[in-house]
Structures are given as structure tokens and as C-alpha cells.
Specification:
Number of domains: 2
CATH architecture of the largest domain: 3-Layer(aba) Sandwich
CATH class of the largest domain: Alpha Beta
GO biological process, one term: thiamine diphosphate biosynthetic process
Structural class: alpha/beta
CATH topology of the largest domain: UDP-N-acetylmuramoyl-L-alanine:D-glutamate ligase
Cofactor: Mg(2+)
CATH superfamily of the largest domain: Ribokinase
Distance between the termini: 33 Å
Protein name: Thiamine-phosphate synthase
Pathway: Cofactor biosynthesis; thiamine diphosphate biosynthesis; thiamine phosphate from 4-amino-2-methyl-5-diphosphomethylpyrimidine and 4-methyl-5-(2-phosphoethyl)-thiazole: step 1/1
Family: Belongs to the thiamine-phosphate synthase family.
Length: 479
């Protein structure tokens, strides 16, 4: 039998006191927030009531719980779905008597004993924290992620972890059994609350059975099977997610190169996208060869409404054998229409040079290109350093503020067909499985390095990487 507290799952947003609150919360809900708690400590009474009414209406329209923080009177006036009480903010029994049986009551706790006491007093869920030090308040009780599993083993009601949670430190909390993550600045402090919420909400896929999440690849077909849609679907499946596809072009291709390309009509590309996205719950979209300016514009228009916002773009321009895979007008359209929608762009050195007009000869040049591409509206850019010399192959991730290096041994091999497609698809897959972006990149780089090292000669040109053995060696599809 379902109870009201069964709705306390996933990403739990606590409001701040900043400007444009309703608009920011609305964006966060579009990104994946599943519970909103209205916390008002500084607003005047009338402003508190106005903001609360607007947020309550938003939550009703979206079908998600609206919880009022600490203020039982305000919860009643707003007909909120429930109230959240601190340890010193009242008895859950009294709140139940006032609100009624159908409402949700949460209680803040810091340890196992407080959690058990809250459940015994009739709480529907508990807040547990703090997980990490936080800028929102002084931390007196630092429970830490390890406390989640301890408390979860003792109570039967949902556990909402709170305190200092970000995209990059949330995974251990979910793995410990938390039903929900409560955040404030990690979402509302972001310049793009919808994207920040989408990143955090997707982390819950890590607890799903295989296949974990789903990836839609929008790319061209490689008749030789080493790159394009074929490489993408191999990668997505072997690494443990579900793969769907939209084909933008057909190629006559083998290990020696591309002999012919037949682009799909843009309207048919749009039809494929609409059909898939209207039915299959896609978590991440990965694009590869988009072929023409018209197709790029069509894909951008369709993806503008993709509410999860995680779009990984591999800006495929040149085939391994040297053939152009994109027409002359397409680069301009790519930069103008698709890059501002891009969560992660994965250009190699020649592609980064084509996009920026910069010459790249070392990591300093890669950093300059990363900053330039970030200025085009891309949320994150991974400049791949495989075309540079040296004993190591280093990729640089720029997140708009700082760089992170991902390094692996450089391998001497001619069997590298499909490396770009495979790496981007692997990143997309790990994102869909619930890994935060830095970890998704690290695991994908591990996978592609193994796939190159384990590649076996096939054909007389640039042979494909070995997707199967790389996944089996690292046990990546089952971990």
C-alpha cells in the first residue's frame, strides 16, 4: 500500500533566499527535482505567503510534493503536502494532529537514535545530516555518508540525506541507500538550475538493474562496423546501458576509408527523434556525424526540448582515412545552434582547431581552445590530446572554471578506427548509469585505452578497436 511519504524519492530541493526564486525552482523541477521544500527565514510575512503560494501551485501542476520548512501555520495556510521539522521545531505527533493523516511529516536527524525516535513519533521520512560541510549553515553534527547505511538499516521510512551534497560527492550517499538527496546551492546556486538538477537526478540510475539508464545516439551508419552508430551501440550495450539510435547518414565504408555518403532527409531525422523521445525515457543523447547544416539545425531544434539536458556531442568532421564527413556550412550551424545546447563536447585536436581557428601544439594550446569553446556556450569541453606527441595521451576537461587532466599511456597502433565515437558513447553510457561527469570520463578513458590495446588487425587499413575484450577485461558492464 502506497503512503504519502512514498513520494519522497529522488532529488529534494530546499529553497534559498535569492532573487527570482520561483523561476529558478521551476527550471530545477524541469531538470528532475522531485520534492520542493520551502524554507523562508528572511522573507516578510506577505512575501513568504506570496512565494509559498506560487511554489505550491508549481508543485501541484508538476505532481510533486510541496513541503514547508518548520512553519506549521504556513503549511496549513498554503495547504502544503507536508511540513519538515527540525529537532527543536515541534513534536511530529502535534503536527500530525494539526495537518491530518494524509499529509507528510519529515524530521531532521543526525544519528541512528534520533532517526529511530522520529520514526516512533510518527515521522513519514527523516532528514539525515550533515553529509559534508556546507555553506548554508554552521555544521554542529557531521553524520557523514557512512551514517546513511547505518540509519537505513534501522528505519523503514525514507531517508533524505542533506548537507554539502554536490554532483561529485553524492554517489557514496546513494550507494549507502539514501532514498533522496536534499540540495540547495548545488542546484539553485547554479547559473543553469535545470542542468544542475539533471546531473544530480541522473545519479540515482546507479541503483537500477541492468541496463542502467538509456542512451540515444544520433549519428551516421558505418557499413564497416568500426565507427558511427555501430560502434556507439556496441559500446552502450557492452557497458551496461540501453541504446537507441537515430541515423543521420549512410556511408559506404571499410577500414581503408569512405567511398560514398548518403545523407538522410532532415525531416526523416526529425521524425526518428520525435518517435524515440516521445516513448523511450532517454537519459543521455550522444551525437556523432550529423553530416549537413540542415540536419544539425533539425537536431538542435529537437534537442532544445530535451528536458534532461545531458547532450554529449562528438563533433565528427573528418573520417580516419581523411574523407570529410560534414559539409562546408555545417560548422557554422554547429557552433550557432548545437553547441549552446551541449553538456559535453569531445573534439580531438584537428576538430578543436577547426572550431576555434587556433593552432594547438601542446597542452597550453589545448587549454586556450577549451576556454574558447567554453565561450561558445558549451557547458563542458573535453579536448582530446591523442594527436599530440609524447609518451602519454592527455585529455583536458574544462568545466567553465577549471581544467582536469585525464592521462593514459600512448599506444602505438593503427587499429584506432572508431576511437572518438567509442569514447563519447562510453562517457554518455557512464553518465546514464549514474556516474558524475569526471568519473564518467575517467572510466570511459580506461575503456577506450583497453579497446585500443586489445585491438586485433581487421582489414587492410585502420582497424577497429576491440569493444568486447575491453569491456570484459575491466568487467565494466557488470560493476
Amino acid at each position: 500500500m502506497n503512503t504519502p511519504a512514498d513520494a519522497i524519492r529522488g532529488l529534494y530541493l530546499i529553497t534559498d533566499h535569492g532573487d527570482n526564486l520561483v523561476a529558478r525552482v521551476e527550471a530545477a523541477v524541469r531538470g528532475g527535482v522531485r520534492v520542493v521544500q520551502f524554507r523562508s527565514k528572511t522573507h516578510a510575512p506577505e512575501e513568504r505567503l506570496t512565494l509559498g503560494s506560487a511554489l505550491a501551485r508549481l508543485c501541484r501542476e508538476q505532481g510533486i510534493p510541496f513541503i514547508v520548512n518548520d512553519d506549521l501555520e504556513l503549511a496549513c495556510r498554503l495547504d502544503a503536502d507536508g511540513v519538515h521539522l527540525g529537532q527543536d521545531d515541534g513534536d511530529p505527533r502535534a503536527a500530525r494532529a494539526r495537518l491530518g493523516a494524509g499529509k507528510i511529516i519529515g524530521v531532521s536527524t543526525h544519528n541512528r537514535d534520533e532517526a529511530l525516535a522520529a520514526e516512533a513519533a510518527g515521522a513519514d521520512y527523516i532528514g539525515l545530516g550533515a553529509m559534508y560541510p556546507s555553506g548554508s549553515k554552521d555544521i554542529e553534527h557531521l553524520a557523514g555518508p557512512a551514517a546513511v547505511a547505518v540509519v537505513k538499516a534501522c528505519v523503514t521510512i525514507p531517508v533524505v540525506a542533506i548537507g554539502g551534497i554536490t554532483r561529485d560527492n553524492a554517489a557514496p550517499i546513494i550507494d549507502g541507500g539514501a532514498d533522496s538527496l536534499a540540495v540547495i546551492s548545488a542546484v539553485l546556486g547554479s547559473a543553469d538550475p535545470a542542468l544542475a538538477a539533471a546531473e544530480l537526478a541522473l545519479l540515482f540510475n546507479r541503483r537500477q538493474p541492468f541496463p542502467k539508464g538509456s542512451v540515444l545516439t544520433v549519428a551516421g551508419s558505418d557499413s564497416g562496423g568500426g565507427a558511427g552508430i555501430q560502434a556507439d551501440l556496441k559500446t552502450i550495450t557492452l557497458l551496461g546501458s540501453y541504446g537507441a539510435s537515430v541515423i543521420t547518414a549512410l556511408t559506404a565504408q571499410n577500414t581503408r576509408g569512405v567511398t560514398a555518403i548518403h545523407g538522410a532527409p532532415a525531416a526523416f531525422v526529425a521524425g526518428q527523434l520525435t518517435t524515440v523521445l516521445s516513448d523511450i525515457p532517454v537519459d543521455v543523447v550522444k551525437t556523432g556525424m550529423l553530416f549537413s547544416s540542415e540536419i544539425i539545425a533539425t537536431v538542435a531544434r529537437q534537442l532544445a526540448a530535451f528536458h534532461k539536458r545531458l547532450v554529449v556531442v562528438d563533433p565528427v568532421m573528418i573520417a580516419k582515412g581523411g574523407a570529410s564527413l560534414i559539409d562546408t556550412d555545417a560548422v557554422t550551424t554547429l557552433k550557432r545552434e548545437l553547441l549552446p545546447l551541449t553538456y559535453l563536447l569531445t573534439p580531438n585536436i584537428p576538430e578543436a582547431e577547426a572550431l576555434t581557428g587556433l593552432a594547438i601544439g601542446d597542452e597550453t594550446g589545448m587549454e586556450a581552445a577549451g576556454r574558447a569553446i567554453g565561450g561558445m556556450g558549451v557547458a563542458n569541453v573535453l579536448i582530446k590530446g591523442g594527436h599530440l606527441a609524447g609518451a602519454e595521451a592527455t585529455d583536458l576537461l574544462f568545466d567553465g572554471q577549471e581544467f582536469k587532466r585525464f592521462t593514459s599511456p600512448r599506444l602505438a597502433s593503427t587499429n584506432t578506427h572508431g576511437t572518438g565515437c567509442t569514447l563519447a558513447s562510453a562517457i554518455a553510457t557512464f553518465l546514464a548509469r549514474g556516474e558524475p561527469l569526471p568519473m564518467a570520463i575517467a572510466r570511459a578513458k580506461e575503456f577506450i585505452t583497453a579497446a585500443i590495446r586489445l585491438a586485433r588487425p581487421l582489414g587492410s587499413g585502420h582497424g577497429p578497436v576491440n569493444h568486447f575484450e575491453a569491456a570484459r577485461e575491466a568487467n565494466l558492464g557488470r560493476c
